[in-house]
Amino acid sequence: MQFVFDEFILDTDRFELCRDGNPVPAQPKVIELLVFLMENRGRLISKNELNEEVWQGRVVTDSALSSMIKVARQVLGDDGQKQQYIRTVHKKGFIFSASVEISPSREMYRSGAIPAPKRNAFNAVSGSTMAAPRPFLAVTAFSNLSNDPAQAYIADGITEDITTTLSKISKLTVVAYPAVKARKDFDGDHVQHAREQGVSHLLEGSVQSDEQRLRISVRLIDLATGQHLWAQRYDRENQALFELQDEVTKDVVSALQVELTEGEQALLVSRGTDNIEAWQLTFQGESAMLEHRKISVRRGREQLKKAVALDKNYVLAWSSLATAHFKESLNNGWSPSRPASLALAIEASDRAVALDPLNASALATRSLIMISKREFDEAVELAEKALFYANSEANTIAIAAISLRVCCRPEQSIKYTEKAMELCPIYPAWYPYGNSLCYWMLKQYDLAIAKAEEAVNIDPHLSLCYFSQAMIFGETGDETRARQAVRKLLAIDPGFSSAAYIEGMPFSDPKFELRRKAALKFAGMPD
């Protein structure tokens, strides 16, 4: 159905909010919240009821709920002062107070349940034409059916490559689930989880491999109907892996009937390397490097060095190697020489950008390096360019958001990190960690604490989560929790130095640096 109010139409079949006929960007959870409020318009909805109905009984903090209500108001052009649509009843709950009309949806027209009007049934009630939505595709982690658990990285790598390639198509929105095992609250039901995220199509599959042969089974599911739009099994020799990935991608695009320009066709067959061993090492190395632990970053760096030795023109390998060296330059004790690691990061980054000046991942990594060199204007320029070319590459968008945060653009950083969260609904801990720092910058402490807690819940062994908590609690004067955060950080990374980290990731505006140093000093963080 369609909820029509003022200049808005919320279409539950398309899971889309439009204003004056134009789609309004909104997280799927925000749409779900608005639908529930409109279904119960004029009635007081308690926080407990929202937890039960919108979050399926998973209790969220008051600050997280307030944050979601705030975002819902923002997409409607509302705020806590006007409360034109969503009214807060103090200590009781919320009421959707606007007048709403119910209109038949386009799906009801299509099914014949309601005769179609003479004009185009895709026209909004107001008479304006809404553009057809882009397919919203989720790619789940392919299952490893091989007898050898050590072959799991092949399934993971194929998932990653297909996701990355599909994400480069501008007419397709792709979300991914790269960290399923890291989320304790994930029950393994990919179909249900994808539906909850407002996804229209789901791609899932399995991989079985040995030393000679590779078999991939893939299914594309229309979540609105539950029907399999397409299913295929591919049998190839192991060395034909890349051709197989291209074929799967093209078949998915064809099944979704996504029209491609010549430029996008070229992106579909752009693999980056023809060396399967280099590809394997790069995927393994990138995954280890993104864990942000001394031992895993070191392991990833060595794997990536082997990858670039095998293929000196592999952009992703050089870009990931630059990130690994950069992380070692940031963290005290992770490298024999932090300046030498930064020099190696610059060298690898130079190579990546020279090979492909428009590669979003390489540009985002280069942006971080420019921050260490205190070239903030160039860092912002590179981050914005990375965001322009990233399309649906969640990690690249989140990395570019880091640069925007450190260059003191916290609102923009939050915006793009939330976009990355939409594209990667089961996101890693460093996404909310980044937003916790942004809310600290904005002095929105409740939201900062909620995001830091979310990061800890996702990965309690990520030391930076506690760095964020130390800053927040240090500034708000909560000495007990601030010092507790410092102890937890040092238990994970005993050699951590705030001075070294700040040297590598300085804020462009000195006022934030003064706040950070004062907060960490109060928390008892050693230099």
Write a concise keyword list for the protein shown above.
six-stranded mixed beta sheet; five-stranded antiparallel beta sheet; 14 strands; 527 residues; globular; alpha+beta
Class per helix and strand makeup: alpha+beta
What is the average of the pLDDT values?
A: 81
Q: What is the C-alpha radius of gyration, as a whole number of Å?
A: 24 Å
Span of the ends, CA to CA: 58 Å
State the share of residues found in helices, binned by percent: 40-55%
Strand percentage lies at 5-15%
Largest sheet entry: 6 strands, mixed
Residue ranges: pLDDT <50 for 5 or more in a row?
A: 104-132, 178-187
Q: Tell me the overall shape.
A: globular
**Overall number of strands:** 14
Supply the number of helical segments: 22
Give a structural overview:
There is one protein chain. The chain is an alpha+beta fold. The protein has helices spanning 28-39, 47-53, 62-75, 106-111, 152-167, 190-196, 241-256, 262-268, 276-289, 294-310, 315-330, 338-355, 360-372, 376-390, 394-406, 410-423, 430-441, 445-458, 463-476, 479-492, 498-504, 510-523; strands at 2-5, 8-11, 16-19, 22-23, 45-46, 86-89, 93-96, 101-103, 136-139, 143-144, 173-176, 201-209, 213-222, 227-237. Strands 9, 10, 11, 12, 13 and 14 form a six-stranded mixed beta sheet that branches. Helix 12 packs antiparallel against helix 13, helix 14 (376-390) runs antiparallel to helix 15 and helix 18 packs antiparallel against helix 19.
